[in-house]
Amino acid sequence: MQHKPIILASRSPRRVELLSQLGFNSEVIPADIDESVLPGEDPAVYVQRLAQAKAMAIAAQHAGRGLPILAADTTVALGMDVLGKPADAAEAMHMLKRLSGTTHAVHTAVAVVQSGAVRCLLNSTMVEMMAVPEAVLAEYVASGEPMDKAGAYGIQGRASAWIVRIAGSYSGVMGLPLYETAQLLHAW
Ligand SMILES: Cc1cn([C@H]2C[C@H](O)[C@@H](COP(=O)(O)OP(=O)(O)OP(=O)(O)O)O2)c(=O)[nH]c1=O
């Protein structure tokens, strides 16, 4: 069966792959928006605001094409603290030391725009990470894997060895919760 076309307002290669699992062929048009967290903003509210802002920014330029436009945003939350993508290796190490031995939340919001209307769903998944020795974290940071990932780890890569359990959605932790995404795309 032929894949259906969709505009993906995200540069994340994981999202291209995950959308393909649902039968969509992504045209990647990344949105460059201000990703600052507002003072006191709840992490779950933050990801929904960003996913919608990314989708609306691309919709403003490509709405006439009649294709659905999808965006997502993922963040790791430790209490009210938002852990986004680390700026450098030192920040990656700091984030990983904070997350090691904790159960934390990973929030991913998905937004779809079609016919000028935006709809958004949130997935929040709890992730239990074992206490990881500092030398192992240092090696992981040196591998470069943390740098494009919220919270400085990827559940789908080497960090998978530290994940005791999750409650929620594996694809959500990877950046695109497939159940919620399918709900949004089938609703059109
Ligand atoms: C926690 C976690 C995050 N991630 C990734 C998913 C997202 O791509 C990234 C979070 O950054 P995002 O800002 O959500 O997305 P992005 O910068 O990759 O792409 P864009 O802003 O263009 O939409 O972290 C994993 O791949 N595995 C994980 O286990």
UniProtKB/TrEMBL annotation:
Cofactor field: a divalent metal cation
Subcellular location: Cytoplasm
Purpose: Nucleoside triphosphate pyrophosphatase that hydrolyzes dTTP and UTP. May have a dual role in cell division arrest and in preventing the incorporation of modified nucleotides into cellular nucleic acids.
Family designation: Belongs to the Maf family. YhdE subfamily.
NCBIfam families, alphabetized: maf
Residues with site note (Important for substrate specificity): 14, 74, 156
Signal peptide: none
EC number: 3.6.1.9
GO molecular function: hydrolase activity
InterPro entries: ITPase-like_fam (IPR029001), Maf-like (IPR003697)
Catalytic reaction annotation: dTTP + H2O = dTMP + diphosphate + H(+); UTP + H2O = UMP + diphosphate + H(+)
Keywords: Cytoplasm, Hydrolase, Nucleotide metabolism
Protein name: dTTP/UTP pyrophosphatase
HAMAP family recorded: Maf
SUPFAM superfamilies: ITPase-like (SSF52972)
Active site per the UniProt annotation: 73
